[in-house]
Amino acid sequence: MGAALIDGKAFAAGLRGRVADAVPAFAAAAGRAPGLAVVLVGEDPASAVYVRSKGRAVEEAGMAGFEHRLPADTTQADLLALVATLNADPAVDGILVQLPLPPQIAEDAVIAAIDPDKDVDGFHVVNAGRLATGQAGFVPCTPLGCLMLLQDRLGSLKGLEAVVIGRSNIVGKPMAAMLTQADCTVTIAHSRTRDLPGIVRRADIVVAAVGRAEMVRAEWIKPGATVIDVGINRIDAGAGKTKLVGDVAYSEVVDVAGAITPVPGGVGPMTIACLLRNTLVAACRRAG
Ligand code: GUN
């Protein structure tokens, strides 16, 4: 057990507290609380759990939550009409449409319809473009949470070698852009990368976001590296039970890394904390 534990749960609680502390001053100046609209289409159980925890977090932060639950057979036109209404609603600072959406709805079309200045998920191409070009916008909550944990642990990231495993639009690509912005030397690795262990062994910072249980092994890790595990995989634990594990083989990597996030309790809690942070930022920017 060599590595320091990066306690995302504690950091997220602190961030949520700081956001909540800032809400009364905003409300006094604006005459209203910051508002987040969350849209859930259909009955996906995992999505329903996420949406419930987001609603609770919004309430605990003293913000106004607007929850919209639509049936699984909602048409794309109906969802686009709701997004247009939320775009025009002055009480709504942030809009989150929970993904995945049912198959009859094109996710890209819905994300493109959200006002980029209310896009607290940071998924709109305008915000992806702003991030890629170093302009202020909204960045996706999970990689933002990873960056905050890294900066809290390491201070300046300048000149460090970072390897991001995974190239999704929600985590891998924005993570790489944010680390580049923070002056890291960044490699994006993925399922087609040749000699993945050799590439990862160069890294001072490893961010694993591939969605494959315990794929990253101890031999891949440079001694002392900081390892951020974004994976949440449910695996068979025997005796009819399951357990949550990350993309990193924690029990062995913990002996090599300098610091590591656990699963659960690492990156996971940061996503909602960063959503609240983005909503407060959206509210402040919109209030001018
Ligand atoms: N589904 C899983 N994670 C997320 C998220 O961060 N935002 C949205 N909109 N949908 C998700």
Automatic annotation (TrEMBL):
Cite the SUPFAM superfamilies for this sequence: Aminoacid dehydrogenase-like, N-terminal domain (SSF53223), NAD(P)-binding Rossmann-fold domains (SSF51735)
Which residue numbers delimit the Tetrahydrofolate dehydrogenase/cyclohydrolase NAD(P)-binding domain?
Answer: 140-285
Keyword set includes Repeat: no
Occurrences of domain Tetrahydrofolate dehydrogenase/cyclohydrolase catalytic (ranges) = 6-121
Q: Which residues form the signal peptide?
A: none
Residues recorded as binding NADP(+), renumbered to this chain, are 166-168, 232
Question: In the Enzyme Commission scheme, what number(s) does this protein have?
Answer: 1.5.1.5, 3.5.4.9
**Enzymatic reactions:** (6R)-5,10-methenyltetrahydrofolate + H2O = (6R)-10-formyltetrahydrofolate + H(+); (6R)-5,10-methylene-5,6,7,8-tetrahydrofolate + NADP(+) = (6R)-5,10-methenyltetrahydrofolate + NADPH
Named in its record, the pathway it takes part in is: One-carbon metabolism; tetrahydrofolate interconversion
* InterPro entries assigned: Aminoacid_DH-like_N_sf, NAD(P)-bd_dom_sf, THF_DH/CycHdrlase, THF_DH/CycHdrlase_cat_dom, THF_DH/CycHdrlase_CS, THF_DH/CycHdrlase_NAD-bd_dom
NADP as a keyword of this entry, yes or no, is yes
Give the keywords, sorted. Amino-acid biosynthesis, Histidine biosynthesis, Hydrolase, Methionine biosynthesis, Multifunctional enzyme, NADP, One-carbon metabolism, Oxidoreductase, Purine biosynthesis
Cited HAMAP family: THF_DHG_CYH
What's the family? Belongs to the tetrahydrofolate dehydrogenase/cyclohydrolase family.
| Role | Catalyzes the oxidation of 5,10-methylenetetrahydrofolate to 5,10-methenyltetrahydrofolate and then the hydrolysis of 5,10-methenyltetrahydrofolate to 10-formyltetrahydrofolate.
Its recorded name reads Bifunctional protein FolD
Record the organism. Answer: Sphingomonas naphthae
Q: By which gene is this protein encoded?
A: folD
